[in-house]
Amino acid sequence: MDGTTNLKGAAQAPFHLTQGDAPFYLPQGDECAVFRAAFENRLPVLLKGPTGCGKTRFVSHMAATLGRPLYTVACHDDLSAADLIGRYLLKGGETVWVDGPLTRAVREGAICYLDEVVEARKDVTVVLHPLTDDRRILPIDRTSEELEAAPGFMLVASYNPGYQNILKTLKPSTRQRFVALEFTFPRPEHEIPVVARESGLSEDRVQPLVRLANKLRAMKGQDLEEGVSTRLVIYTATLIAQGMAADRAILAAMIEPLTDDADTKRGLLDLVAAVFG
């Protein structure tokens, strides 16, 4: 399981999978070995890559493989340090302290995954600094505590460099506190079996979908802000596997999510026709 929180003040119980229940992940290189080495040496990890390329699945897989509970925090514009650490709440007429997901992970020795960390408010990175060096502590001013991370705690963060701008980026002083892994979309020989396994569509029928996805990815920065994620290819293949016509599935799961511009859609549909004949 994978505990996810994206609401202010929410802190759900972590999901805890065993290695046998690990979500399927097909390694693209030595990323699993690097992650394991970082975990064993109590080093934080930063995952860089485009949306939908497998970063979250990778973390879930590694947490299960390592036998650690996992807290996943979907970062957003309003996410503050207090949302991660915790706050006082009224319960039954009393004011009680409720740990946030980061605090719970520190206490329990879990993995805390901050997805798209650059989307969070700036005070979040300040909180992370003492957890990403040899101190491995979390100061909680509200309770006058200074928590030392329990054995097994690991901080993992991710972001999409393609969306970086002057207002949303990680400072070099923050980036250099992490071991970094760069992710990209899988090569076709890896992506085809992944999509086939996740969707139930045969590899020979998945192959043209992956070929189309790579042609659309090549248009990033021209007509498209972002390329087709592996997630969207899986969605498309899933619809086809359930009996939907390929052209309708591609429109619904690959074209419409990419753009709202009518002219761009027409151009993309011409590309679909060229690939599928």
UniProtKB/TrEMBL annotation:
SUPFAM superfamilies referenced in this protein's UniProt entry, alphabetically: P-loop containing nucleoside triphosphate hydrolases
Organism in which the protein naturally occurs: Rhodobacter ferrooxidans
Keyword field contains Metal-binding: no
Signal peptide: none
Family: Belongs to the CbbQ/NirQ/NorQ/GpvN family.
ATPase dynein-related AAA domain span: 44-178
Lineage top rank: taxon: Bacteria
Name under which the protein is recorded: ATPase associated with various cellular activities AAA_5
GO MF, one example: ATP binding
Keywords: ATP-binding, Nucleotide-binding
Residues of the CbbQ/NirQ/NorQ C-terminal domain: 191-275
InterPro entries named among the record's database cross-references: ATPase_dyneun-rel_AAA, CbbQ/NirQ/NorQ/GpvN, CbbQ_C, P-loop_NTPase
